[in-house]
Amino acid sequence: MSRTRQLAKLRALFARTKPADDLEDEIRAHLRIEEQENMESGMSPDEAHYAALRRFGNVPSAQERSRDMWGWQSVETLWQDVRYGLRMLAKNPGFATIAILTIALGVGINVGIFSVLNGVALRQLPIPRAEQVVSVNQVLHGRFTRNVHGEGGLVSYPEYLEYRDQNHVFSGLIAYEPFVEATLAGSRMEQLLGALASCNYFDVLRERPALGRGFIDSDCAAPGANAVVVVSDDLWRQTFAGDSSLVGKTIVLNHASYVVIGIAPPGFAGTDVVPSAFWAPITMQPALDPGTDRLGDENLSWLALLGRVQPGLSFNQVRADLDVIAGRIDLQHPGRTTSLLISKATLFGRPAERDVLVPVASVVLAAFGLVLLIACANVSNLLLARASVRHREIALRMSIGASRLRLVRQLLTESLVLSLAGGALGSLFALWSFASILHFVTSRLPHEFSNLSVNIGPDLRVLAWALALTLFTGVGFGLIPALQSSRLDLSTALKGDAGQSDPGKKSGRLFRNALVGAQIAMCMILLLAAGLLLRGLYYAQMVDPGLNMKNVAATFFNLNKQGYNQDRAAAFVLSLRQRIQSLPGVIEIAQAECAPLSHDFSADSFTVPGHAAKVGIEYNHVSPEYFSVVGIPIVRGRGFGPGDWRESLGVIVTESTARQLWPGKDPLGKTLRDDTGREYSVIGVAKDAQVSHLGDIHTTYLYFPAGPQDDHRTYVLVRFAGDFTPTAKGIREAVQSLDAEMPVDVTKLEDYLEVWRTPSRIASALSGALGGLALLLASIGVYGMASYSVSRRAHEIGIRMALGAHASDVVKLVLWQAMGPVLMGGLFGVACGAAVSFVLSTMLFGLSAHDPIVFVFVPIFLASVALVASYIPARKAMRVDPMVAIRYE
Question: What pTM did the predictor assign?
Fold first, then answer.
């Protein structure tokens, strides 16, 4: 089609009156000329006029063909359908309101949860030209050993230098260690999370500090040589009151002084989902984390890589260039092969993070999607019921020439109008409300995760998702009702016999029942999930972990990070224990590498004589008083003595560990061998307790004796009598008297249980809300189906009652027909719920994923609600006046 013709069609589309008038004038002129010629040949005026018309042909047909030529008929027809659909919805405001609100509910919550996932894992970093920045991660294959600090896909510092200096595809490549813990000294001790970054960090990210400067090459010239730091805008404003003179001053992090050289720009909080409060040069790692030197370890994963790709280069070109460098690095590590993952840089985009996110996101999206499907089924039933009222109109349109395809298109357009209205309303509500919901949820997470750096505002991806969901919803709930509605018996429909012409005869009734059954099945799955999570949360509140956590205070010290060497750490802990022991109400003090249920784990592989494969076992270094402080008895053998740490060859195992490693044998005297070849002998058996994972008492677990060499990183556990507050105050004062800059946080040991319960509580609340929403929608669906059935069978009900049927018989009939699809859907939902409930096992704390209480109570509860929803229209049915009903229709 030529451009001139396209422009003509476009003008005709928006200005149809003028082309139509011109066409009419042209036809009229043509007919006048033809009439004149006919009259000149001897015809009368009337004969000349009719002869001209006969020769020209059908004038309206010609006009229609011309309009087809100069316009886009499909666009015009669509616009007609939209206008007609709007008029029909305006005539039925009750139906339109219910349908739009139902769709808004289903679409809105799905758009809201997608906006959260988009902000966490799909949205690019909030930096200039973020589309140019990629994340580089290693996947190592082969038989080799690798040290890991953080995630396995990270790189070592020497590997970073190789990638940075040898590549030909990046304008800059940065390395940084995320989630670096530090204590900010001052009038109030503050625990911070920051990052150690290469000195090109701010340059590559194109984030210029608002005050001062970023790093320069000389800041990373030598390890520990330049103690400088850039602080975040939030830290500057909240802790330092926005003091512009802070630049050039000194702050103390982990007992070391750092000169503040810059304040990060507002809104920039780093490149991870947890915001960074500060950035220090990567070469300051040994100073910021004393006792470790990761810079020189070429076989240690600890640094994340981000690179800004040169313009015009593709991912494949980037990967090909870096593969060459990775191959050269592999030659230095025989048996190792490296493959690289190159992806757009996001806040939560590293492979280890996605391995956690993808399963969670899949479950959440599936749960929210079920609510949307229930909403679609509800609106489909509404459309089917409404179609029975419009059967005469549809039959009339078909009788005057409308094709079935044209009718389906019209009805589907009305469905899309409903869907677009509901989708727009739901999306606006979701984008407005989910920011507050996210803040409410994260504020109840542990402190370090309570201020996530997530932007859930709308972008093109969210808007595209909202539009796609809306269109899918419109087609999903509108297509089959449209097909059903357009299957009519014209002769009976035009006579007004709705009972015979109704598309909801047997096939329509089966479809409506299937929709209700599907709603019940999806509702059952959500309610079972909610029931399991609530039961798991209750179980977590009531479970006996096998130890006495009450009246025990806990505090943690990482003395390495505070600049203590081993001798200073041992002296500090010894003095602290003496001072705490003298406090009023203190009964006993113990130390442990990992406090019970603290989410602090240590594990290694051990060789057990008689076992071919190595066994992964969790372990803890504890002082002799540990077992009495936390109330774990030694059931066989003995506990640790004061001098056992000197030899460190004796271990204590748990009962379940003894059963798993030496079934049917006496574990005392049995040996274990670690990876260094050192052997340990079992000297005692401790009672099983949930010290590592709440709800899991069968974890293989060892206890080693703790000595002064373990004081650099230790929990101090204090059993006390009386109130917690004065004991905690005394512990803090004892710490401050020994080191005024030492951070100290004293908590109740039983508070560690809350760290386990909080995710379950959030998941239970979310699942309960979705289950309640699904229950409401499913109940409406059952009620609507039963009400519609009663209204369409009023004639039949009247005849039955006129022939002597009792009101109770009518009620039984309606209930049986209404509860049939409920029971079938419920059985299917129970089967599906049982099949997928295993995904919740980590939040059930030892409760069975097929808990009989949940799988009995929830179906009974749902059936009861459906029965009530069916009984309301059933009562109306038994009040039908037989004489009125017989005349019905």
Answer: 0.76
